[in-house]
Design goal:
With 221 residues, this protein is mainly β. It has one helix spanning 12-15, and strands at 38-40, 43-47, 51-53, 55-58, 61-62, 65-69, 75-77, 82-85, 89-97, 105-112, 123-128, 135-142, 148-154, 157-166, 179-181, 188-193, 198-220. It has 1 helix and 17 strands. The chain is elongated.
């Protein structure tokens, strides 16, 4: 079997969820002849735990704005326009110009939350017939005082690998993950010692189409 490289791209289907918007900049009315701030991207889908950087411009030049989220349970935004998905749902991220030379504008952000794993409870029948590099994502909530997070894969046919990371979904492109296992077949084991309290994400990465896989995540107090 060819040795895996740990730098592989996440599938586009996992990273971005299509969002349907209405209209474009040309459809927006103006008041007193003032233009609207332009936000890029104006519509975006992201995974819980992932981020997207928004930029605000006016007539093609950067413009000073303040940022605000309509729903922090779904997405928060920093003072620099960095949006972080915090839970499943929708948020309007509004850029308000510091000066009065333009009108504010909102970007539409839709956040998809992965299913939650329960410690010690197997998830059975996991399968994917996608292209190499196709991914599936879960999460598990790690309480304070946990000494180990153990994720195992077993059974079935084909070949799937596992990556685990705290706080944000594993990024195979940048190598941003705390643990990985990519043996031949589906017998995989990933241990994270003394995990930080919070959300950990478990990513399954397809090497060859697989079916009938069982995954178990176990927390040790």
């Amino acid at each position: 079997m060819i040795h895996r490289t740990v730098i592989r791209f996440l599938s586009a289907a996992l990273l971005a969820v299509p969002v349907v918007g209405c209209g474009d900049d040309d459809d927006l009315p103006t008041e007193s002849g003032q233009p609207y701030v332009e936000i890029t991207p104006l519509f975006q889908g992201i995974l819980e735990g992932s981020t997207v950087q928004l930029t605000a411009t006016l007539n093609g030049d950067p413009v000073a704005v303040t940022w605000e989220s309509s729903n922090t349970a779904a997405a928060t935004v920093s003072a620099t326009g960095l949006v972080t998905g915090t839970g499943g749902g929708f948020a309007a991220i509004t850029a308000t110009p510091v000066s009065a030379d333009a009108h504010k504008r909102s970007a539409s952000i839709t956040v998809t939350a992965p299913p939650t794993l329960t410690s010690g409870v197997p998830v059975t029948g996991i399968a994917s017939a996608g292209a190499r590099g196709s991914t599936q994502l879960w999460k598990i909530i790690v309480p304070a005082g946990t000494t180990n997070l153990r994720v195992t894969l077993s059974g079935g046919t084909g070949d799937v690998d596992v990556y685990v990371n705290g706080g944000t979904p594993p990024n195979l492109n940048t190598g941003d993950y705390e643990c990985f296992s990519f043996n031949g077949g589906n017998n995989e084991l990933c241990n994270v010692a003394n995990p930080t309290a919070g959300t950990y994400y478990v990513l399954l990465d397809l090497w060859d189409p697989y079916t009938g896989v069982t995954m178990t995540a176990t927390l040790t107090p």
